[in-house]
């Protein structure tokens, strides 16, 4: 990302990052990294694609950042399967507490888990965020898994060396 685009991206999302509840996502584990960084990654992907395609990229980027705006505490009443389906609605409720969203932004957040959730993307921006989220999630899970495997190998080699001595 160019410096100009990075500055614009940071400007678009800066007020959201200042919200305490949003910055608390740094402590929430999501695909092996923090939910905060996952949201930023999805927002960045949405920003780059929607800007390139001359869409409503500012609103789309903000909604993409808020797509997983929930803490584990918000979903403690649900099991993993229910959380998987319901967290877009919870993220939308949280986002609306802090920000004024238009219908498109609400749809971007509520439909990002489609087809797992019942809300279908109604605009191109929502389809883009939903696809970016899936690609980013796969990448993060793969990276986390890869580092786990590497960690296990390092431990194994370390044990072998210390046993030899
Ligand atoms: Fe999500
Ligand atoms: Fe996500």
Helix and strand arrangement:
Blueprint: H1 3-17, H2 20-23, E1 29-30, E2 33-34, H3 35-52, H4 57-65, H5 80-98, H6 103-110, H7 124-164
Antiparallel strand pairs: 1-2
The site of one fe (ii) ion has 6 residues, from helix 3 and helix 7.
Write a structural description:
This protein has 165 residues and is mainly α. The chain is 69% helix and 2% strand. It has a single domain (3-164), classed as Hypothetical protein af1432. The protein is built from 7 helices and 2 strands; from the N terminus they run ααββααααα. It has a two-stranded antiparallel sheet. Helix 1 (3-17) crosses helix 4 (57-65) and helix 6 (103-110) packs parallel to helix 7. The longest helix is centred in the last third of the chain and has 41 residues, at 124-164. It is globular, with a radius of gyration of 18 Å. It starts with a helix and ends with a helix. The protein binds fe (ii) ion (2 copies). One fe (ii) ion binds at residues 38, 42, 67-68, 133, 137.
> What is the structural class?
mainly alpha
User: What's the helix count?
Assistant: 7
Q: Outline the low-pLDDT stretches.
A: none
CATH C-level class is Mainly Alpha
H/E topology pattern? HHEEHHHHH
Strand order of the largest sheet: 1-2
How many DSSP E strands?
Answer: 2
| Structural shape | globular
CATH architecture: Orthogonal Bundle
Mean pLDDT: 92
Strand content: under 5%
Reported for the largest beta sheet, the result is: 2 strands, antiparallel
Radius of gyration: 18 Å
Question: What distance lies between the first and last C-alpha atoms, to the nearest angstrom?
Answer: 49 Å
| Residue share in helix | 55-70%
Number of domains: 1
Determine the CATH topology: Hypothetical protein af1432
């Amino acid at each position: 990302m160019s410096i100009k685009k990075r500055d614009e991206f940071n400007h678009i999302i800066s007020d959201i990052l200042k919200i305490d509840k949003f910055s608390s996502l740094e402590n929430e584990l999501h695909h092996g990294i923090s939910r905060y960084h996952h949201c930023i990654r999805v927002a960045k992907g949405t920003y780059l694609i929607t800007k390139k395609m001359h869409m409503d990229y500012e609103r789309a980027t903000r909604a993409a950042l808020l797509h997983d705006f929930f803490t584990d505490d918000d979903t403690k009443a649900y099991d993993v399967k229910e959380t998987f389906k319901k967290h877009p609605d919870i993220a939308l409720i949280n986002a609306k507490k802090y920000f004024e969203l238009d219908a498109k932004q609400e749809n971007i957040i509520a439909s990002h888990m489609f087809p797992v959730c019942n809300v279908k993307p109604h605009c191109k921006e929502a389809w883009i965020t939903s696809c970016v989220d899936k690609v980013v999630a796969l990448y993060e899970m793969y990276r986390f898994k890869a580092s786990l495997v590497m960690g296990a190998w390092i431990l194994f080699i370390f044990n072998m060396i210390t046993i030899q001595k």
